[in-house]
Design brief:
nine-stranded mixed beta sheet, alpha/beta, 17% strand, globular, single chain
């Protein structure tokens, strides 16, 4: 019995020592940690490339945690890699960081970029039902800053960044590209316990690709049909633009001006590639045409590609037309990114 008792006591003491050592190695913060933290899953794609889905880049009390997907090149980095940041569309009302147009496997596009040597991020942002402008723009800029603040961890070259957006995401990406350093659109520090700090990093970019984007809300408002009478006006649901802005465009000129990339252009803006379908019934091609002319007038290097006879999301009259338009847009996009970020 004495031998058994001694063995049990020794075992208990050894377990106590192991637990003491384990807990002695637990890191602690200076204040209470309010955000949820868990080791991110790692997705290995066929043929190379690694995905890190749902990384939290911002915590603002009262809102869902804001996350992004990160795609990394295969193997260990030999140096810092250029960064591509994608901002998805969805009328500022839908959360679609893994979708674009008619592309069946959009993450596969990101993986293809990663295999070429890019780090790719696809971000989520606050939607119009959650917070009005400039919240989503603040989120876009916060994501850019967060990625730069984690440059060493993920092997990112801070000085080579292209932003890419489609539709509503194109509005956010385009505005980010032309408002570099603008204090009126800089993301503020969120109040309250548990809020993550906005990194003290740049939100500037080296170039921008915009698919069927919105650049001028005043022009968008001008195309809205007038209601036949007051009753019809009252019963009409708010447009996506109004829901995003938090007001009717005709009633809030300052908000319209702040959200419209065309109002922020200056000679220091980065090169931009604008791609639009000529038959777009959601966002008129005039949006990209006017932005292109405004960029040229300021001496900003830019290119406009208008794809004939395709609607929003590059949807053509036949599946073959949709396929051809989508491939054309992707080819031009990848060529532009390669040229700007100097990757062969």
């Amino acid at each position: 019995m004495n031998l058994i008792r001694r063995t049990l006591l020794l075992s208990s003491f050894a377990l106590f020592l192991l637990n003491a050592v384990a807990f002695a190695q637990v890191a602690t913060a200076k204040e209470a940690v309010m955000e949820e933290r868990y080791p991110p899953p790692e997705v290995k794609f066929a043929g190379g490339g690694v995905g890190l889905p749902d990384l939290t880049y911002s915590v603002i009390p009262g809102y869902r945690q804001l996350k992004l997907d990160l795609y990394l090149p295969p193997g260990k980095p030999s140096g810092a890699r250029p960064l591509v940041v994608y901002v998805a569309g969805g009328g500022w009302a839908a959360d679609r960081p893994r979708n674009a147009g008619a592309i069946e496997d959009f993450p596969g596009v990101f993986v293809g970029l990663a295999k070429k040597g890019y780090v790719v991020a696809s971000i989520r942002y606050r939607l119009s039902a959650e917070a009005k402008f400039p919240a989503a723009e603040h989120d876009t800029k916060t994501a850019l800053r967060w990625l730069r603040s984690n440059a060493v961890k993920y092997g990112i070259d801070k000085n080579r960044v292209v932003i890419w957006g489609s539709s509503a995401g194109g509005q956010l990406a385009g505005l980010a590209a032309v408002s570099c350093g603008d204090p009126t659109l800089a993301p503020p520090q969120a109040p309250g316990a548990g809020a993550t700090k906005v990194p003290n990093e740049s939100d500037c970019v080296s170039g921008a690709v915009i698919w069927y984007g919105i650049f001028d809300f005043a022009q968008m408002a001008a195309r809205q049909p007038a209601a036949a009478n007051a009753a019809n006006a009252a019963n009409r649901p708010p447009s996506a633009d109004s829901s995003f802005l938090g007001c009717k465009a005709t009633d809030c000129p300052d908000q319209v001006r702040a959200a419209s990339a065309i109002q922020h252009i200056d000679v220091n803006d980065p090169p931009m590639l604008l791609i639009h379908g000529s038959a777009d019934r959601v966002v008129p091609v005039k949006q990209s045409e006017a932005m292109y002319e405004a960029l040229k007038a300021k001496g900003v290097k830019s290119e406009l590609v208008v794809i004939p006879d395709v609607d929003h999301s590059f949807i053509g009259k036949t599946p073959e037309a949709t396929h051809a338009a989508t491939n054309q847009a992707l080819k031009k996009t990848l060529e532009f990114i390669d040229a700007i970020l100097k990757v062969k």
